[in-house]
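Query structure, 321 tokens:
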């Protein structure tokens, strides 16, 4: 069935893109309104699962690499897998920019969310926050204008895509196992989860992520093995965010009773491990980064519950050819 979709994904018409973004937006808005996704809570920009998924698939940065994304979907037999809401497919963000088909990738992820809302979690990457944190490599508006003309592109981008981006999750928690973010961990004590109750998020919490500083660090931070002068963090060379050391990783994993942080944001050879196995970086884009490799993670519940650090995940990481 994926082959039937491929031509559509490559040549997405303006109306089709608008409709699928609207439908995905409505699915996420519904989750926020009811505060629930199958086997989990939704509170503002956080998804907290109640139990381990039967099967978990994680996909890192895509950056307009439609062919790699379609390969992964075919490899996991997405129609069969995502029909079961006890399974979860989690995207780590950075869907657009750099690659040749950001529009096609955007269409695909929205299609998946509208069709399998309880199985698909869409996270926000720094490339989905161009208004809050402007940067020069955000070429999605240009790609839209080239395809649809400036007037139509401005309408789709400003009225549909940007509101959709703002709804995407910043953090996913999988109980006693994984803390999932796009970029990195906040360096301050009061930036993340300061209103989280012992038994969950709590229905009285309206928005745990009102701080722009928290959002910047979650989307832009990177782990660093050695911070100069023995500090816990330093300012990033990216222009936004910070480099954080192992003490920050230990703090948040202890606070949230998690074993491992999984994040994207950095090109690597498909994956890399930092901070003595506490941080695993996953990268799923080949096209825009020919000097690097791409990979994704597929793991069953029984396997996940017995893992304790990033090194043990390696056997469940599959390279994208």
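Result returned for the query:
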């Amino acid at each position: 069935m994926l082959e039937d979709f491929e031509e559509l994904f490559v040549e997405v018409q303006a109306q089709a893109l608008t409709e699928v973004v609207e439908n995905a937006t409505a699915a996420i808005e519904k989750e926020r309104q009811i505060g629930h996704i199958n086997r989990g809570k939704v509170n503002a920009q956080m998804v907290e699962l109640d139990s381990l998924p039967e099967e978990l698939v994680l996909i890192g940065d895509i950056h307009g690499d439609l062919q790699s994304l379609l390969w992964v979907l075919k490899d996991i037999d997405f129609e069969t897998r995502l029909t079961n809401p006890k399974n979860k497919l989690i995207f780590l963000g950075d869907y657009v920019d750099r690659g040749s088909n950001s529009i096609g990738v955007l269409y695909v992820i929205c299609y998946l969310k509208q069709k399998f809302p309880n199985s698909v979690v869409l996270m926000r990457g720094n490339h989905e926050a161009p208004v809050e944190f402007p940067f020069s490599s955000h070429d999605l508006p240009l790609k839209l204008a080239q395809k649809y003309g400036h007037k139509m592109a401005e309408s789709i981008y400003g009225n549909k895509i940007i509101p959709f981006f703002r709804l995407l999750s910043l953090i996913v928690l999988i109980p006693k196992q994984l803390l999932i973010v796009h970029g990195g961990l906040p360096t301050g004590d009061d930036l993340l989860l300061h209103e989280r109750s012992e038994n969950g998020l709590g229905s009285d919490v309206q928005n745990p992520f009102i701080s722009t500083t928290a959002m910047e660090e979650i989307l832009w931070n990177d782990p660093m093995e050695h911070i100069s002068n023995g500090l816990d963090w330093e300012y990033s060379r990216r222009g936004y965010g910070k480099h954080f050391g192992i003490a920050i990783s230990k703090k948040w994993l202890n606070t949230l009773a998690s074993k491992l942080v999984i994040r994207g944001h950095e090109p690597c050879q498909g994956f890399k491990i930092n901070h003595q196995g506490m941080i695993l970086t996953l990268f799923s884009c080949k096209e825009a980064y020919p000097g690097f490799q791409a990979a994704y993670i597929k793991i069953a519940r029984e396997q996940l519950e017995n893992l304790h650090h990033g090194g043990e995940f390696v056997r469940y990481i599959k390279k994208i050819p």
